[in-house]
Structures are given as C-alpha cells and as structure tokens.
Amino acid sequence: MEARSSDHVVARAKTRSEDVEGILRLSYSPIFECVQVWVEDNRVPYWHAVDVESIKVMKKGRLPREPAHWKDGPEGRPAWSVVHDLEEARKAGLLRPIGEQQGGTLQDIINRLDSLVEPLTAAGWSIEQRDRDSSWEYGDSASCDLLRQDKSIEVELYDDGRVIGWVFEEYPDDWDFEPRPVAFEADNESDVLKEYKRLDWIP
Prior knowledge:
203 residues; alpha+beta; elongated; six-stranded antiparallel sheet
C-alpha cells in the first residue's frame, strides 16, 4: 500500500532504529531541498524522522491542508509545502538517503552518558533531568542536567563521541537571549575527566 501524508503508519525511526507508530507527515524543506519524512507520535507528543523504506501503512488518512504560514516564503524565498505522496517524492529524487548511524543504538549512547556522569554524581551532583535530541545538523545526542548546591550544569554526548558541557546561569527579567555558556568541548570521552577537574566539578 502506497503511503501518503496523514496515513497512520508504523516505521523505524532514524534515531537508533526504534519502531514508532503515528501519523505520517511529508513536507518539502526549501532549506535542505528535500522532502522530510516524519511520524507524529501523539502519545509523547514528538515528531520522529523515519526510514522511508520501513514505512508500513496501517490505516489510510485524509490528505492534510497546507498551513497558512507556509504559503509565502519570507523575502522571496521558497515556502515550505505539504507533500501528499511518498512515491511521487521518491520519483522526483527528493528523498534524502539515510546516513550511517554512529555510536550504536540510542540505549548505547545513553549508557555511555551514564558512565560519563558517574564521577559527577560521586562528587555530589544530583541528576535533575535527562533528555535526547535528533538534529539534521548536529547528529543524535543524549544529555543530562545536574545540580549541586546553587549551580546547574548539563553534559551532552553526541553520537560521534563529542561531549559538551554547559553551565546554566540566572538571568534578569530583561535579559536578551544569547546562547548559554559552553564550559568545555571534548572531541572524545577520554578527555572529559580532565575537563571536569579543570572546572572543579570533581575533586
């Protein structure tokens, strides 16, 4: 059964080969010049980028309307647009091939992150929140927010082994947004302990 936008489908997420179920969303991105293929999981809610070859249609849906703000691109640039038919996008060469995943499964990345934050929890940091992210630009990652006394930090591990440490700060109400300060960037996990010690995050 050919898949179309708004169909109820099951597919394998590009983020670490997980199966997801939900509504198929197809949209042409003028930035990437390709059709992005997503499954909208209303239980989370979350939109998963999926492997187009793994899509299985469970129930046909109604074709969606194009959002009003997609009709005119800003400053003369092409607008985003809804794509209705997956096979038409394939024939037009608009489907982006799946890149090779790095770092194993998502659980592998989470397990490695757990090992990275163990020295922090041993030094009195408490885990406040865990998260994961999938980015077209930066790759998949898992992150952990930690708190000790009045200081809050985040450690984020990317699928290629890069590790970034962030510091959260208190800002006034009239603060103009700027990216939060990066405490360190390590090209591999073996350098992380050195950075923890340099920053006095661990003894």
